Structure formats: C-alpha cells, structure tokens
Amino acid sequence: MDEQSSELIDSKSFTYKGCIFSVAHVLERLEQMENYDVRDSDVYVVTYPKSGTVWMQHIMKEIFTDVDLDDSENKASYLQVPWLELKIDSINTDDRPSPRLFVTHLNYDLIPRALKKKKGKVIYIYRNPKDVAVSYYHFRIFAKYMKTPKNFETFLQEFLDGQVDYNGWFDHVKNWYDHRDEFNIMFQSYEEMSKDLRTAVQNMSKFLGKSLDDNRIDQIVKSSTFKNMKANPKSNYEDITSESFDKTVPGFMRKGIIGDWKNYFTVAQSELVDKIFQEKMKGFPLKIIWEQ
C-alpha cells in the first residue's frame, strides 16, 4: 500500500485518505476513483452503509428495464447496478453500454471529481442514524470480512466515533448535502420511501428522465416491497458466496423497517444520539424520520 495515503488498521480494515475500508476493497480501485471516467448518462446512487442500497439497486434496475419484471433472463440487480468502488473481476463494472448505473458508499472527498462538475446524475439516500446503527451492527456480524462487534453498546460507540467503514454517518450525510450545488443531485429519505414508495419511484424516475406510465410504476412498486424482494433471488443477494458471509444469521435483507432501533437502544443511548445529532446537524433542513 501507498504509505502516504493508506494504512493498515488490522487484518480486516485499512484507511485510504483518512477513510476506513474493509479488506473487501482493493487499494488500486480506490486510487482510480478521483479521476474516474464519468459519462453524462451515468447514474450514481450514494448511500451511507445500511441505508437502503440493496433496495435501490433493485429499484434502479427496474426503472431502467424495458422488459417485463418476470423475464427469467433478467440479471441480478447487483450485476446491473454494481458497486462503483469495488473491484470484482466477475462483474463488468466499467465497460458497460450507457446508461451505466452504480451504487456507492464513497464520501464526498473520494467521489470522482467529474461528478462535482454536474456530470452524470446522483441520488443520495439517507436514513435515520439510529436504524442505520442497528442494521450496521447486524451486518458486521454477518460479513466475515469485517470485524465482529463485541456487543451493540461497543459497536454504537465506534459508530458514533466514526470508527467504522466509511467513517461517520453525520459527516457523510452533511458533507454530501453541504456540497449539493456541485452535483446534479436529488436527496431521498429511506423512511419516506418506506411510507410512500410510489411517490418516491415517480420522483426518482422524473429526475432520471424516465417517462414511466402508471402501470409500470405499479409494477416497480409491487416488485420493490421488502416481502417480494426478499423472495426474489435476483434482488436478495442469496446467491452470494457463503465464504464471505455467515449465512446462519440474517444478512442483506433483515427487517427493512422504521424504528427497529427501539428494540436495541437504551434511553441513555437514544438521548446521546439525539444530542450528537443536534450538535453536528444543526440547521440540517432535510427531514429525519425516527419511527413509523
């Protein structure tokens, strides 16, 4: 590794330009990001981890799919909407025909510079940090390539300190929002998607310049419910190798609900997050929904 820009933390993580990454990432790929060749027709869905990324892979695939949803030739969503910063030899990430669709967790500082010149389109999905922390905690247990947390209390402190992959939620969300004028971007709340998916799909389709009739919107909404996605092998990641994940515990699609944090947070922990939120997100205008 380049000693000036990267540093090993332990056997399962390293830093690159101050951002923490798991060993699922390759330094060579991260180094390509700053000068990545962005196309005008590209679409980038940006999320902090555990904020609806798998959900958005499916929705983006369906918005840009002109065939029937039940087409057996339809590829898995993670193949059609791959991770920008991951280098997986079996997945054609870059050399695809336009429009290319991507998902990424990259923070503002590491995103391709061309995107900051309003090239391509960006959809930023944000989710309330309490539910993110709970989902992230369970994912750390599920993913073998990540350090398994001792317990939720220990993990929550690491999460609040930004000592997790992609660093802190607060900085990630705020930095993207504060620099919004540099991008061709729309912001979408995970919770608002959960409460009114149809409107969210309509708004995203309009932003992306896709004219979809009511029937197609209805199809996408139906296929994108948690129940239907969990039963769909092309959307639920069930075919991912067990070498990387502990298939004995819930993984990519665990609950997908609003307010699960109430089952894990103590009153003191909840109040601590509220305090930090008020300090770090002062004046943040986007609505955060904490419970159903």
TrEMBL record:
The Sulfotransferase domain is annotated at: 40-284
What's a GO cellular component annotated to this UniProt protein? cytoplasm
Keyword annotations of the record: Cytoplasm, Transferase
Name of the molecule in the record: Sulfotransferase
* One function term, GO molecular function aspect: sulfotransferase activity
Which organism was this protein described from?
Callorhinchus milii (Ghost shark)
Q: Which family does this protein fall into?
A: Belongs to the sulfotransferase 1 family.
Query: Which Enzyme Commission numbers does its entry carry?
Result: 2.8.2.-
Please, which domain of life does this record's source organism belong to?
Answer: Eukaryota
Asked if DNA-binding is a keyword of the record, the answer is: no
Q: What class of enzyme is it?
A: transferase
Q: Where in the cell is it found?
A: Cytoplasm
